[in-house]
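So, could you explain this one?
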Amino acid sequence: MTTANEEILANLKIVSDERARRMADPAVDRCVADLKRYQQQRFCHTYADLLASPRYGTAARFFLDELYGPTDFTNRDAQFARVVPSLVLMMPHEVIQTVIVLSALHALTEVLDTAMARHAPGAQWTPDVYRQAWQKTGRRADRDTQVTSTLSLAAGLDGLTRNPFLRKSLRLMRLPARLSGLQDLQHFLETGFDAFGAMAGAQDFIHLIETREHAFVSSQFEATAQAS
């Protein structure tokens, strides 16, 4: 039976392996970087109302910048991998389950981004190019999993913010994290916690993401059917 520690580390290895494959193919590597920027622009358009919302804006920006943006997360992931064994031993079950969902979503997103880029190396990302690469990549079940994992992550973060002990613990970790070279990971954890805590309930936020992302996924695959 796979332990939580093994599952998280296996997902982080998938991410690392994807980066290594892309580094070996500069055209694909550049294409993935451009793809991530394009997808962030798409999310900004789809969720312009949430980004402008006093209640939901911080959480929406967290997803864009910390999960789906073009930032290089290599250092953060390496820091994450270093503390996984102790994290699994020290943190409550709810935290570990959220971390598992996060790592699995991170791995799946990197795999799908690489697959998309291999179908459009050197191309400028436009709605038509994006749709064609999406259609050639296929993997409907993985796309649905990507959405449901995002929703699960949001729900998990929302639940964790109701535990004041965890927020206090995060604050106490700031100095040890800096001294241990874990500041990127510390920033990610605190940003996520604060973003969801500020909403005072994420049900409407999660419902909007669920509705819009499932509609987007369906529209991409409906285009496949129409084109065939």
Notes: The chain has twelve helices and no strands.
